Known about the structure:
Two copies of one chain form a homodimer. Chain A is of the alpha/beta class. Chain A has helices spanning 3-10, 14-21, 28-41, 47-54, 70-85, 99-111, 126-133, 156-168, 184-200, 217-230, 242-254, 272-276, 288-305; strands at residues 59-64, 89-94, 116-120, 139-142, 150-154, 174-178, 210-212, 236-239, 264-266, 283-286, 312-315, 317-320. Chain A is 48% helix and 16% strand.
Amino acid sequence: MNINEIAALAGVSRATVSRYLNNGYVSAEKHEQIRKVIEETGYQPSAQAQMLRTKKTGFIGVIIPKINSDSISRMVQGISSVLGEKGYQILLADTHNDIKEEIRYLKQLRQNHVDGIIMIGTYFTKEHYKAMKDITVPLVVLAQCVKDYSCVYYDDYGAAKELTKYALSKGKNAAFIGAIPEDEAVGRERLYGFLDANFELDREIREEYCTNGPFSISNGYESAKKLFTMDDTIDTLICATDKIAIGAVRYLKEIGKKIPEEVQVTGFGDSLVASVCEPHISTVHFYYQTSGEEAASMLVNMIDDNKSVRKEMKMGYQIVKTESLR
Amino acid sequence: MNINEIAALAGVSRATVSRYLNNGYVSAEKHEQIRKVIEETGYQPSAQAQMLRTKKTGFIGVIIPKINSDSISRMVQGISSVLGEKGYQILLADTHNDIKEEIRYLKQLRQNHVDGIIMIGTYFTKEHYKAMKDITVPLVVLAQCVKDYSCVYYDDYGAAKELTKYALSKGKNAAFIGAIPEDEAVGRERLYGFLDANFELDREIREEYCTNGPFSISNGYESAKKLFTMDDTIDTLICATDKIAIGAVRYLKEIGKKIPEEVQVTGFGDSLVASVCEPHISTVHFYYQTSGEEAASMLVNMIDDNKSVRKEMKMGYQIVKTESLR
DNA sequence: CCGAAACATGAGAACGATTTCAAGTATCAA
DNA sequence: TTGATACTTGAAATCGTTCTCATGTTTCGG
């Protein structure tokens, strides 16, 4: 079933059918004829032919490190809800945490002629910038602040600083369990926020009080062990993620430290586990879903306006104070 | 940059360039000329034109109720890993738990000429079957067993039965907190497994000992409250999901019931929260990621073979016994 | 050295839409 | 009546590939 057959059945030219489909001039009489034929045949125009002709695919490429993550799946949910509304489809590119895949997908999406790209970034190499340069469609980076590109990101630095300062209003001796330092947002900004909070309150932090490792419970456990073996008087533990905090809590319970009386513990992300853990872990709520929505709206605007003035949006946060803080 | 320009620059016909791209006959000499021109220009063939011509898009439509869910995102992760390997891209269709959207997407994907569809189902209406009938590409249903279509699903019934029987080897008076009954797998199969376990052990279960509600912590809390207000001697609580179990545990702690001494509690899904909750909640591990991989492989085989013999794959499970069981 | 098989090439017709252009028909004010 | 304006229509070009043919060229066994 193609447009020619429909045209023949309705006794008009295919141009008229095309106009019918795209609200151009078409008389009431022919309109009705065409409508009837289309209804009877269940005709649906070929999306491929339309794409070839119009250079619009209606696809948005979404590049993510992995979908099986609480924060990322929430961002994607937000992206999906806005894009669905605007009539776009998501072409999902999951890199499985492989940087090279990220670049490969950038190239592949270019070939597939997506109308725009949202990239949930972790860290950016020179190769990334090179690949991004070649992109001809609008691009929005989510969850990371990147020079030269529009982006929506979180105030990791501010949140870490505020949280640390709050904790230090009660605590005296703080340590930080961090994530991989290559990750700009989670790895570095949170650490810097922690350090600056200490600095502004005139607390000295020695290098060995800041560890780092993967985003895992066991990293939290092992790092806490290392820290407390080194210095038993630590009374405030700022962890870069909730999972890490869970691991730390597990270790602290094991050695009989009371939370929060002896040690305060905090995480980041406001995940379900933080509120299920005992004691409930104080954490920072980031508006993941909302940020996904914002990134999607931003992208759609860039596509529509066609004048791509760079925008930068820093999302707020909410500190969630629960049992693990004094 | 199109194939004609490349052909002109390389001094050959566009057919030869096309053959170069699709490994047909082409002499070493011309091969080299074309290679050079393509390298210099950075030419990439238009995916749209290829799709129009070949009727292959390389896209697989994946219809899901929502991405922001532990089990579903794991399935998608599995799907993504296999499809990525096989050179397919995922066209994600998130229905946001709206049945009508599911049908709309089925129709839309048909228009977009995806090469195949994976649908993560919850429950199927007549309209679903009607829409599915019209699908001309291979379709695999994941997480639900459906007549007439290939599917990969979980042994919810068997798991619920085994788990319940195990719990009843210690417990005497069991109750069930279920999910929405329209959901075939989670809502019904788990309930039936629970009921049959009781039946086979000659335990009578009255209707009011089986509640149902949404997949939420608060459902667990409220349902537990209702059940224990009605009968304080319940000593075994089988919950249809981990989240529900968390809510139930929360209520039981509140009224001072000891777990597992006075009440055993179990969940389903082996989510992170189950292992973080205190006490650790006994649960059932389903191979979500693996099942996603299986569904994807199955689909790819159907696409390649082109003979679509229906297959049905029931995935195994693993009961995770922890502190919440005696 | 001949005929068949294998290799190599380009012309041109698809694929199924949109869009430009030119031309034709009402409508209507002057 | 005329000319301008707004509608309405279809022919034909176009988007960028692939693929079928038809036509040549090698290669090679007999």
